[in-house]
């Protein structure tokens, strides 16, 4: 566990001001979390505790490490503004479901956090969000893109573009740009996100009238794809549409290119990572992906974010960092709206955020937790994500 923003003395004070539990198991309203003033002038004396479960080790660390940095940057910036002090309590789920469940329990029961952010994978969220919901803790997903996430309960929100929305833009955009008529599809049929994304990909291809000439599956831990790729090669497909996490994507794409399969590859959310592009090197050229953020978006906020991130961590930001950064600002906005950091107030105000300016562009959250934002469609050119529509 890492704690930031307050020292040990303050943390000790926090323990004595534990909230009162009601018979439902949810926390009663705590007057010390109600401040004075509103918006930018809101002042709350009590420290507001934000818990985050991220995958800092294991298969999803490619995203989790950026999320940690985006989140810490946002919390540092927010703590420099006057009025509200945030304590970020971070737990690593190591890309493991049981660890994710116990990490979430720690944040809910030991730390009694006021809001939560994460986890990195939808696969974990389907289990851990039930606990957050039962505890009545508003929770904001940052990369949980599978269908059905906000439906888990009224306390569950996300600032992560749903994969089905990204694909509804990226697959037609890729088709318009690449003019494919036949497609091969491949997906990891064990993971919640890759399975959900695959269903959306399949639907989009059918809607476009694209003929699916090969359809292959593999388990999450697979690293040897030559047998499936041979079938895809023989199918003569114009494009490969792939739903996989990076652990599989990297060897899969490398093996395809080594076998001389040079058709464009269209992917899902895991492709939105410079780690992936760095690992694939030349094999990543012409990968097409729809995502929630672009380094090229030239809003004042995004320019400031990309510069601060580079300065703080000596590497460029990515989408996962941008979404984590957005989640902290979104929770801050919801607290300031009624100057109240009680869980129910945060939940109500999150559901009222409309056209809130973020580094992802303007976002709106519905009362039932879903985000509306415009997707960005990108293609890898010369090792960099470039906006496809800008070509
Ligand atoms: C999900 C995802 C992953 C690719 C995030 C890292 O989108 O699990 O929903």
UniProtKB/TrEMBL annotation:
<dbReference type="InterPro" id="IPR028082">
    <property type="entry name" value="Peripla_BP_I"/>
</dbReference>
<protein>
    <submittedName>
        <fullName>ABC transporter substrate-binding protein</fullName>
    </submittedName>
</protein>
<feature type="signal peptide">
    <location>
        <begin position="1"/>
        <end position="22"/>
    </location>
</feature>
<dbReference type="InterPro" id="IPR028081">
    <property type="entry name" value="Leu-bd"/>
</dbReference>
<comment type="similarity">
    <text>Belongs to the leucine-binding protein family.</text>
</comment>
<feature type="domain" description="Leucine-binding protein">
    <location>
        <begin position="48"/>
        <end position="383"/>
    </location>
</feature>
<dbReference type="Pfam" id="PF13458">
    <property type="entry name" value="Peripla_BP_6"/>
</dbReference>
<dbReference type="InterPro" id="IPR051010">
    <property type="entry name" value="BCAA_transport"/>
</dbReference>
<keyword id="KW-0732">Signal</keyword>
């Amino acid at each position: 566990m890492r704690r930031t923003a307050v020292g040990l003395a303050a943390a000790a004070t926090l323990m004595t001001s534990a909230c009162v539990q009601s018979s439902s198991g949810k926390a009663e309203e705590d007057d010390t979390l109600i401040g004075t003033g509103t918006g930018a002038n809101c002042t709350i004396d009590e420290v507001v505790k934000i818990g985050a479960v991220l995958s800092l080790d294991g298969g999803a660390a490619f995203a989790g490490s950026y999320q940690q940095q985006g989140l810490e940057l946002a919390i540092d910036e927010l703590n420099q503004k006057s009025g509200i002090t945030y304590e970020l309590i971070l737990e690593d789920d190591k890309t493991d479901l049981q660890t994710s469940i116990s990490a979430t329990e720690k944040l809910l029961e030991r730390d009694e956090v006021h809001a939560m952010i994460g986890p990195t994978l939808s696969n974990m969220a389907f289990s851990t969000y039930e606990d957050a919901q039962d505890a009545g803790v508003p929770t904001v997903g940052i990369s949980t893109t599978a269908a059905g996430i906000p439906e888990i309960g009224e306390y569950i929100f996300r600032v992560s573009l749903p994969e089905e929305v990204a694909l509804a833009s990226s697959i037609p955009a890729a088709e318009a740009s690449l003019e494919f008529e036949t497609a091969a599809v491949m997906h990891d049929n064990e993971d919640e996100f890759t399975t959900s994304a695959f269903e959306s990909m399949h639907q989009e291809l059918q809607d476009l009238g694209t003929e699916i000439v090969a359809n292959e599956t593999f388990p999450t831990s697979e690293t040897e794809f030559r047998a499936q790729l041979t079938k895809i090669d023989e199918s003569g497909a114009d494009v490969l549409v792939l739903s996989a996490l990076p652990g599989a994507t990297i060897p899969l794409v490398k093996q395809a290119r080594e076998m001389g399969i040079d058709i464009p590859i269209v992917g899902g959310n895991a492709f939105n990572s410079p780690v992936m592009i760095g690992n694939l090197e030349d094999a990543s050229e012409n990968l097409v992906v729809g995502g929630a953020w672009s380094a090229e978006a030239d809003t004042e906020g995004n320019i400031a974010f990309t510069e601060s991130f580079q300065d703080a961590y000596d590497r460029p930001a990515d989408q996962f960092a941008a979404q984590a950064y957005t989640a902290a600002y979104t929770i801050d906005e919801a607290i300031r709206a009624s100057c109240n950091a009680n869980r129910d107030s945060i939940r109500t105000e999150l559901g009222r955020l409309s056209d809130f300016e973020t580094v992802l562009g303007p976002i709106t959250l519905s009362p039932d937790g879903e985000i509306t934002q415009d997707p960005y469609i990108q293609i890898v050119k010369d090792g960099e994500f470039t906006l496809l529509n800008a070509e």
